[in-house]
Amino acid sequence: MADPWQGEAPPYTEPPAFNVPGAVLALLVAIVGLHLLIEWLPLAAQREVLFLFALFPLRYAGVDGIVEGLPGGFAAEIWTPITYTFLHGGWTHLIVNSVWLLAFGSPLARRFGVLRFFLFYFLCGAAGAFLHVAIYPASPVPVVGASAAISGLMGGAARFVFLGDGPLGALGGNRSAGAPQRSAGIFASLADRRTLIFVGVWVGLNFLFGATALSGALGVTAQVAWEAHLGGFLAGLLLFGLFDPIRYSPSGGPGNVGYGEWLGKDREK
Question: Over pLDDT 90: what percentage of the chain?
Answer without folding.
Answer: 45
